[in-house]
Amino acid sequence: MKSITKQKPFEEIERSLRRFDAVFIAGCGTCATMTATGGIEQVAAMQERLEAIDKVVTGSTVIPTACDEMTAVLLKENERAIRKAGCILVMACALGVHRLSLYTNKPVLPALDTLFIGVEEKPGQFREVCAQCGQCVLGETAGICPLTACHKGLLNGPCGGTNNGKCEVDKEKDCAWTLIYRRLKLQGRLDLMRQYHPPKNYQVVPRPKSIKLG
Amino acid sequence: MAVSKFQEVLNSGKFVVTCEIGPPKGTNLDKMQHHIDLLKYRVDALNVTDHQSSVMRFPSLGGCLAIKERGGEPILQMTCRDRNRLALQADLLFAYTRGIRNVLCLTGDAVVIGDHKGAKGVFDLDSVQLLRAIRQLETGEDLGGNKLDGAVEFCAGAVVCPEADPIEPQLIKFEKKVEAGAEFFQTQGVYDLEKFAKFMEFARQFPVKILAGIILLTSVGMAKYMNANIPGICVPQYLIDELAAAGKGGALRKGIEIAGRMIATIKKERLCDGVHIMAIGREELVLEILEAAGI
Ligand code: SF4
Ligand code: SF4
């Protein structure tokens, strides 16, 4: 599982850095490296682009896992460079941005948009597979999540928009309910598709979600 | 006792005719009211679209009130796209107090195909759940299991797409809608009556009324566009050829003739229980379609 991110348009990054002349860049060695959005190369490329628009990059680092406590240590190690910067530009997912903001009083700015938690289908191709709804129905939908894979999150079968087995909103993407139908049929469990799913409880765990386990 | 005039007609065995009314984008109701007045006594019910294709418009509920005020029989379209279960139930309560007794339950098109692409799609309920919600409100209880002070009673329907590919998931959902309490079905536009007759063999097993969707063809371009872009619609080549042979000026007349001919065939051969005519903004032409059909 990975936190899937995409770099923000450079103009947006530039706009967010408007009031800062000097910037420290922090990438992440885990998810953002695997999605090639905040690894060593992308951090170096960002440094070049910022310098090209006359920003001073006081330093940079790629934190092994930006969302854990090691982040505090890394910030300490780079204290001098960070002190010279007006802000920290974070090339990690929102968890990393959040974590960094706990350990510094400098403004922390995201360079990436956090899209979803997902898996890599084939190299460079990521797809959301679970929206963490708190009440899993995968047992009845042949392992395909209708809340995530169906654009409308429908629980009782396909909408009328499905066309040639593809989704109404994306002709390239299989309709989740066509996939669910095929797999349930293959498994001889089509009766599960005939079963009525009542309206979902969207407040199984109210927002912001938090839980104490054990 | 029937819940509504429309339900009475549905159960009378008469060939049912409904048509679609598109509300305005704005507050000028003149055109819609004109269409209502033209058609209210010529069809059994007028069915008002609910932000069709996710394009923001005057609401279905408002259109239905206008029909009611002018003495017509409205069918309220309700999509699950824009309202959560509280708002949907509240609208049903309100509609009931204003004499609206027919509801068509739809999932609704995706937000991203409409004119407010960044909006939040709701889909708190799906069409099957909405049908059940109506039946639950009728027992005097809301979806939360709370008692109502005054219940509702509706003639409820849904839609089905007889030409979808693959068809079986759609048929399973059709059955779920029947179980959820749908009394009538409006189909997506049909053009191939042989295929439609096959679907009807299946649908006839269930105690529901089926109204075949008739979409007016206005040009060769429109037919081709629908084939390429509208899910579950397939205009056969011979109809496209017929439109083409009529030339640019004659295509619309040809379209009216084709729609009339299809309705007449459906009626004569008793393929299903009635038709639902969609003229998509050219509602005044419904009269000519009916004439062409001999109705
Ligand atoms: S139903 Fe879907 S969103 Fe919910 S927990 Fe299961 S996989 Fe995740
Ligand atoms: S086409 Fe399929 S996946 Fe897309 S919204 Fe409809 S049911 Fe969901």
Describe this structure in words.
The complex is a heterodimer of chains A (214) and B (295). With 214 residues, chain A is an alpha/beta fold. Chain A has helices spanning 10-16, 31-34, 40-52, 70-77, 79-84, 94-103, 146-149, 176-186, 191-194, and strands at residues 2-7, 22-28, 56-63, 87-91, 108-110, 112-122, 125-128, 166-167, 170-174. In chain A, a hairpin with a 2-residue loop joins strand 6 and strand 7. The radius of gyration of chain A is 21 Å and the shape is elongated. Chain A starts with a strand and ends in a 20-residue tail after the last helix. The model of chain A has no long low-confidence stretch (mean pLDDT 94). By secondary structure, chain B is α/β, with parallel strands linked by helices. Chain B has a single domain (5-216, 275-280), classed as TIM Barrel (Alpha-Beta Barrel). Chain B has eleven helices and eight strands. In chain B, strand 5 (155-160), helix 6 and strand 6 (184-189) form a beta-alpha-beta unit. In chain B, helix 9 packs across helix 10. Chain B is globular and about 60 Å long. Chains A and B meet through helix 8 of A and helix 5 and helix 6 of B. Bound molecules: iron/sulfur cluster (2 copies). Chain A: This is Methylene-tetrahydrofolate reductase-like protein. Chain A: It comes from Thermodesulfitimonas autotrophica. Chain A: Pfam families: DUF5981. Chain A: Residues 110-203 form the Methylene-tetrahydrofolate reductase C-terminal-like domain.
